Amino acid sequence: MRQSSLVVVANRLPIDDSVAPDGACEWRRSPGGLVSALHPLLRHTPATWVGWAGGTGPAPALPDVDGVRMHSVPLSAEDLRDHYEGFANATLWPLYHDSVEQPEYHRSWWEAYQRVNQRFAEATADMAEPGAVVWVQDYHLQLVPGLLRQLRPDLRIGFFLHVPFPPPELFMQLPRRAELLRGMLGADLIGFQRSQAAHNFAQLVAKVLDVPATDRRIAVDDRVVRIGAFPVSIDTVEMAALATRPDVADRAARLRRDLGSPEQVILSVDRMDYTKGIEQRLKAYSELLANGHVKVRDTVLVQVAVPSRERVGQYQILRERVEREVGRINGEYGRVGEPAIHYLTQPFDRAELAALYRVADVMAVTPLRDGMNLVAKEYVAARVDDTGALLLSEFAGAAAELPQAYLVNPHDLEGLKQGLLAALRAGPDDLGARMRAMRAHLHRHDIRTWARSYLSALDDSGSLLTRLGAG
Fold it and tell me: How do 15-19 and 223-229 pair as beta strands?
């Protein structure tokens, strides 16, 4: 079995299966921030990506994709239900997002989480060469660093949490809190989106495990675990290039005509998730229509809400509530051929998204809590003419990097309405100054900068990026 000097471990493999013209199944690299960030590094060294291929039953044998070995970890239907839909997304996800919805706790879910994490750790141990670097990703696999260190103490192990890490008073509710913290502490470097998350983690470790901890270093047995903030980003150059393609510009022009050529277009692009603040945003927009501050003929809201985790009851209920509210608003304020809200649930490819970003005069990104929110960054990167307004929640990780956005508290309905009006009414000079500053920041802090900064911190000897051909 070929072993690798760099192993990325994530819940999902970065591939999609599609059907070729001859009917055969093909596996292709899927678009996405993490794979875009790591691909330039992975192709220079024997590298493996360990993850789930998306189906249940035995793990499929997969070809290499762009020179990177794909190693599939099998999940049964029970694993999918209790580990992924259960402990990961009905216990940890709501807890880590300020308990916007009440987390559920079931012992069988915890047992499945342990079982699946053990399976990922064993697969990773088999794929890593002596002294290899392993980078474990996100909340689905928080036990893997500790399990892997027991199996392979020779490895250099990193862990990165893409979602928020909650304050101690929330995390302390978790029945198996100590085990999760110990699992993460198996890493040599733990990365978070924001420094506040690192602070929360250090406080919890000191309180729950009674070990010396600062916001940068934690002493565990005879090791020092380093922690810190590494805000994830996007491929800024790629998005800007996509937005300037002639076919994308033509598509944007057609979209605006299809929307009735309104004076202003407001766009929101979300997964259907209770953390995204979709209901609060719709209520704010409805009240602006009701009091006449916004008129349907002049302004239109395009709400993209791609369904997710549809087998989880909370998500089914949310979708029903959102669709009912969209119907109410359109019934009350829309006209024939002029809906107040264009509501779309289908996923869009990158080119179509770039066209939507070009159309949007205001991008409304108002989650109740988000680790980062890359849609906000994609919108800024796509506005190559320095126009457009970004309305951004204070509780998205991106707010710390993009203070020139129109920042709002999505829990404050009046504040949300005022922020939206300010973005709609802003003059071109103000908009241009804000957008130029945000675009300059993204060009300095793109996805590759993020990957290199984390990996160089993980291997403080400086040899890792040299080995990867990216030093």
Answer: unpaired
Give CA–CA dist 232/373, Å, rounded: 9
pTM: 0.93
How confident is the model at residue 18, as a pLDDT?
A: 54
First to last CA, the chain: 28
- Of 29, 60, 32, 64, which Cα lies nearest the Cα of 48? 64
DSSP state string for 70-137: EEEPPB-HHHIIIIIIIIIIIIIHHHHTTTSS-----HHHHHHHHHHHHHHHHHHHHHEEEEEEEEEE
Catalytic residue set: 162, 370
Q: Is residue 346 classed exposed, middle or buried when 0-12, 13-18 and 19+ CB atoms within 10 A define those classes? A: exposed
Residue 14's identity, in one-letter code, is: P
Cα separation of 151 and 168, whole Å? 30
124-143 pLDDT, tens digit per residue, is 999 999 999 999 999 999 99
The interaxial angle of helices 428-444 and 236-243, nearest 10 deg, is 130
Helices (H) and strands (E) in the chain, counts: 18, 16
CA atoms within 13 A on the CB side of 171: 20
β-strand partners of 342: 302
Please report which confidence band the pLDDT of residue 471 belongs to, taking 50, 70 and 90 as the band edges.
Answer: very low
- Beta bridge partners of residue 338, listed in sequence order: 335
Burial of residue 198 (number of CB atoms within 10 Å: 0-12, 13-18, 19+)? buried
Averaged pLDDT for residues 36-63 = 82
Best CA proximity match to 276, nearest among 365, 197, 347, 342:
365
Question: Is the model more confident about 469 or about 400?
Answer: 400
Task: List pLDDT tens digits, range 345-398.
Answer: 988 888 999 999 999 999 999 999 999 999 999 999 999 999 999 999 999 999
Cβ pair 118, 73 in contact under 8 A: no
Own/partner pairs, 326-331, CB within 8 angstroms, 24+ separation: 326/282, 328/286, 329/282, 329/285, 329/286, 329/289
Residues 230-279 have pLDDT tens digits of 999 998 999 999 999 999 999 999 999 999 999 999 999 999 999 999 99
Q: Which two tokens stand for residue 182?
A: 């110990």
Asked whether 268 and 233 are in contact (CB, 8 A), the reply is no
Residue 334 · residue 237 · CB < 8 Å:
no
Q: Is 348 exposed, middle or buried (0-12, 13-18, 19+ CB in 10 A)?
A: middle
Cα–Cα distances in Å, from 384 out to 16, 233, 425, 435?
A: 30, 17, 21, 9
